[in-house]
Amino acid sequence: MWDRLTPSQLVELLDTTSDALLVLDRNGRPAAANAALLRLLDAGLDDLDPEHPLLAAAADSLSHTAPGGARLQLQVRRLPLADGGQALWFRDCTEQQRLQQELSEQTLTDPVTGLLNRRGLSVALEPQVSRCRRYDSPLSLVLLELRGDVDDPARVRVSRILKDQLRWADMIGCNEDQRFILALPETRQADAEQLIAKLRERLAAEFASELVDTGFGVAEWRKADNTQTLLNRAAAALAPAAASTAAG
């Protein structure tokens, strides 16, 4: 359809829409634009610099600062025209991306493994930490880091092993940065370390022929801990192992 339209026909067709349209002639020079595009530029076509980011758009999307200072996320399409020129079609996806980001932040599960994500685990951990404060009951947190050639199928395999090895009362979370978080209610650090030894052996057998290694950090709840400080201490326990691996 588009390759049968002249520049003027295309601009007339879209001049009442919110999408911005810039028509280039066969030499790549601006030939026409609709009202939405001129609002984006806050200038006329004669003032359009050939190096302007909109004119030079090569990707399927780009960020653009509107005249009022708002940062827009634009979807970009290139449409061939009948006279040998082309049209650049810009659609504002800022609100859509904002809503997707909000939805992502509200999601409690990891899309790959189906486990709790960090936010979901934090929500689930709050009652456990409150219980520790109230009854002085033990709670250990284990951070498992995958290192090496790790893809999504590998993360799924690890999640299955963890589900098989842990108790029903234990909680498993998974971050997108190749880390798993294990929350172990009624568990002292010494018992958590015994579990780590079993997991290390099981994972080593699972990835025996692959370039995948594991690191562990563990922290037991203390009276001054909240959910974040407990996570931080588990991460700090993992850091020396990660540093020594990198140094080697």
TrEMBL record:
It is an enzyme of class 2 (transferase). Residues 137-248 form the GGDEF domain. It catalyses: 2 GTP = 3',3'-c-di-GMP + 2 diphosphate. Signal peptide: none annotated. PANTHER family: DIGUANYLATE CYCLASE DGCM-RELATED (PTHR45138:SF9), REGULATORY COMPONENTS OF SENSORY TRANSDUCTION SYSTEM (PTHR45138). GO terms for biological process: cell adhesion involved in single-species biofilm formation; negative regulation of bacterial-type flagellum-dependent cell motility. This is diguanylate cyclase. Its EC number is 2.7.7.65. One of its GO terms (cellular component) is plasma membrane. InterPro entries: Diguanylate_Cyclase, GGDEF_dom, Nucleotide_cyclase, Rev_trsase/Diguanyl_cyclase. It comes from the Bacteria. GO terms for molecular function: diguanylate cyclase activity.
